[in-house]
Write a structure and sequence with these properties.
The complex is a heterodimer. By secondary structure, chain A is an all-alpha fold. Helix content of chain A is 78%, strand content 0%. The chains are: A mainly alpha, B mainly alpha.
Chain lengths: 274, 283
Amino acid sequence: MKKSGILPGFGISLGFAVTYLSLIVLIPLSAVFLKTATMHWGRFVETVTSARVMASYRLTFGASFVGAVIDSIFGFIVAWVLARYSFPGKRIADAMVDLPFALPTAVAGISLTSLYAPNGWLGQYLHPLGIDVVFTRVGVVLALTFIGLPFVVRSVQPVIEDLGSDVEEASASLGANSWQTFCRVIFPAVFPALLTGFTLAFARGLGEYGSIIFISGNMPMHTEITSLLIVSKLEQYDFAGATAIASVMLVTSFALLIVINGLQARTRKFEETR
Amino acid sequence: MSSSVSSNPVRGRGSAITRWTLICVALLFLIVFLVLPLASVFVEAFAKGWQTYLDSIRDPDALSAIRLTLVASGIAVTLNLIFGLMAAWAISRFSFKGKNLLISLIDLPLAVSPVVSGLIFVLLFGLHGWFGSWLDDHNIRILFAVPGVVLATIFVTFPFVARELIPFMQAQGSDEEEAALVLGASPWRTFFSITLPNIRWSLLYGVILCSARAMGEFGAVSVVSGHIRGETNTLPLHVEILYNEYNFAAAFSVASLLSLVALVTLVAKKIIEEKAGLRGGRA
């Protein structure tokens, strides 16, 4: 099946890649499902739908959703500004967008907690207004907003750059005002990429751990995320319980991965037809 | 009417207000959400002065955490780099069945949450895991020991080099390498004088992203490490322990080292993007 007879190393490179992939990723991952399969079905259902676990799903999915929505709104504005305008400090702002990728999540977690604590830089102004962030669900949303931002900006920014200002000029010269231009021309073109960014931020939020555990306070039924529940089951040596919940999270992530691949394929197709 | 049909309607007066409003909203958002958290790390780190800062970093447990972080990320980056080169070579230079499946499977670890990434190694090597009793009989420790930390780090950073190299090498094609081989260069010579120089920026980019994630990984490592001070603690885990002991100045001092690594990563990433004309945002 070689494309060209002259290039060497097909066997060894593919062999190494597949072996390494199997040893590091595929076999270990299959352990989760095989371990879950040994569980009694009734006990599995009971574990993954118990009240405390359900509360953690609601928080994890809800907070990831709200965080991804906030990221989509502000990420769009940030991407637009970076793609279209020039202003002092633009290169620094552009580089800073990737900070949540580069900053370890535990560091993000403790610094957000100290910022929003009642005596923190921002907390001291929010606390008198009755807005408490630390040890509440607001804190969880905030941490997830931080983590998800680069996904939206980096999905949307190249599409806005490629769009060029000529379509807006064409739209304006045909008599559209700027709001109409935005709603009818720009937004539909950027929407597939925005949806991809939203889904990436949402998917990342579901599994997030380090940035949340410090700010959330980890109160069962209230501010306990699913990842933390897996860790506490492990600490109580409840391997079956931890694995059951993990398999639910894994199936969700894989389903989202398929959705994301579909969205990205659609975005590419859209780009090519333009 | 005539004003709206000017040669460049985007730069009208109305849009100047829109433009500056949007720039201010974007910058304010970035400052509140990104700059303030980063700045607070350094301010909190020096809250009790230089001496406390230096003492927290020179603490034997901190030094051992630095060492373990460097060892684990060094091994993870090296192995994933070799894998990335092998996978990218096979995928970009040959056609074979199941290629698209292979590309998708390489990205799989990115979809797995950090805690679950750690859990899978507990299931394999824990006392009740697949290999647990065998390892125990032979007195080999993987879980709650350095090998577990290294394995978890390899898993979470698995795709980083490969996913930079694969699209880059696919776009590049193999004409130059074929020419070199036809002209009689050995495979190794072809690799070192043609392939490697061509992919160097893309390779470096992947290595930088891979190292940043390897040094900062928290969830997966926290599940497998067992948090043994001076032995299996990486820097992020050391930060957590200090923080949970209410030793905030020390926690932020150690965190400031990781933040410096993050800043260096951002600068290096930006430089490579501009130098090599890569478009940012892949991570």
